[in-house]
Amino acid sequence: MKTMRNNCGTLRDYWYVAGLEKDVTYKDPLTTIIMETRLVIWSKSDGTLVAMRDRCSHRNALLSRGSIKDDCIKCPYHGWTYNSSGDCVNVPSEGPDGKSFENRGVEVFHVTPRYGLIWVWMGKEEPDKQPFPMPKIKDKGWRTYYMETEFDNEVTHLCENFMDVPHTVFVHEGWFRKRKRIEVKSTVERTEDSVLVNYISNDAIGFTERVLNPKNLPMVHTDKFYMPNNTRVDYIWGNDEHGFVITSTTVPVTPTTSKVYTLISYKFGVLNHVFKLFLPWYTRSVIKQDVDIMQNQGLAFSEEAPDFKHTPADTLHIFIESLRSWKQNGEIGPKPKPRVRQVDFWI
Ligand code: FES
Ligand SMILES: [Fe+2]
Fold first, then answer.
1. Does residue 219 fall inside a structural domain?
2. Burial group, residue 61, by CB count within 10 angstroms (0-12, 13-18, 19+)
3. Index of the ligand 1 atom closest to the CA of residue 66
4. Gap from CA of 66 to ligand 1 centroid (Å)
5. What is the domain count for the chain?
6. Range of 17-31, 91-105, 251-265 with top mean pLDDT
7. Are residues 212 and 110 in the same domain?
8. Are residues 97 and 171 in the same domain?
9. Residues 235 and 219: beta-carbon distance below 8 Å
């Protein structure tokens, strides 16, 4: 079967998130699916992580339901046992002597914990990049937490949604941004591996702007996409006095479903303790609204392939899609050129 992983050109040559670091403990493996490839992540006794296909090479049972002992994982079906290199080191039906069993191993993946997340390299070759830097995790005055969310839609449309401003006054009306019937000016730049949006005119967010910005400081808003699946939305008030940053890394699970790890970073000075109580509920509510609208769009795609009409406000989507499609198609044909556009739209 041709899985997404074997059918996505060079989009596989990146680190993708398999889960939260805290969710893997010794003897307690984690199972996840990235690009239709089921993986098991487990920890050796020294804390080193192991990522391998969650599929026994014998009769393909899930190894994640097995047991971990002596830095090996044992299949629950007939007891085949694999070491952390994926080699099969014991087949009980062939005797107790621990022979070496060539060609019976399972595939292992490069895996690294970083920023509280577990990253797996899905590429064929050795890693030639670093995991995406999740921001503000240890920065002074900032607090952070992760949210895990499943979406019935695919990566390009989710990245677009996470950066799309016009939907906020409809999908999140009264929650995130109020409709003011004003024109917003922005620049949208495509680089080799990113799409960068700078908003030039006045903007404000928050279910009440006074809560997010009690001192009425000027706000700088930027939206950024980084290949192949990361978005970062920054709202910074004053001279870095207050801040609210939403960073999302979107994991392709199947062609129509994804899992998103969202890092919420905030800095509200003395109000941090208030936001600690309020923000998880608020951000969960707002993401639920996106889950619903993304499911809505995904349902439409399940009947017919996308056929979009664009406005200037959709420039960022066109740019994201162009970068991802070029990789998806194996980097054949001309590479999307760097470009900057002035984009004005109404919210
Ligand atoms: S399926 Fe795993 S040992 Fe048989
Ligand atoms: Fe949204």
1. yes
2. middle
3. 2
4. 10
5. 2
6. 251-265
7. no
8. no
9. yes
Ligand 1 pocket test, pick from 55, 56, 81, 106 with the greatest ligand atom count within 8 Å of Cβ, gives 56
Ligand 1 cavity residues, CB under 6 Å: 56, 58-59, 61, 75, 77-80
Give start and end residues of each alpha helix (H) in the chain: 155-163, 168-171, 209-212, 272-303, 315-328
277 and 231 fall within a common domain: yes
Determine contact, residues 125/13, Cβ cutoff 8 Å.
Answer: yes
Residue 60: φ, ψ to 5°: 70, 20
Is residue 205 domain-shared with residue 274, that is, in the same domain?
Answer: yes
What CA–CA distance (Å, rounded) separates 37 from 73? 18
Q: Please check whether residues 28 and 88 belong to one and the same domain.
A: yes
Query: What gap in Å lies between CA 220 and CA 87, rounded to an integer?
Result: 53
The CATH number given to whatever domain includes residue 21 is 2.102.10.10
In terms of residue numbers, what domain contains 18?
Answer: 4-121
Closest ligand to residue 54's CA: 1
91 lies in the same domain as 221? no
Task: Report the C-alpha gap between 84 and 52 in whole angstroms.
Answer: 8
Q: Give a yes or no: residue 137 inside a domain.
A: no
Closest CA to 233 of 132, 323, 115, 135: 135
193 and 107 part of one domain: no
Cα distance between residue 209 and residue 259, in whole Å:
30
Condensed to tens digits (0 to 9), the pLDDT of residues 275-314 reads: 999 999 999 999 999 999 999 999 999 889 999 999 999 9
Q: Which of 31-40, 100-109, 121-130, 324-333 is the least confident region? A: 100-109
Strand-strand pairing, 81-83 and 72-74: antiparallel
- CATH code at 287? 3.90.380.10
**pLDDT by residue (tens digit) across 181-208?**
778 899 999 999 999 999 986 666 655 5
Indicate if 110 and 204 belong to the same structural domain: no
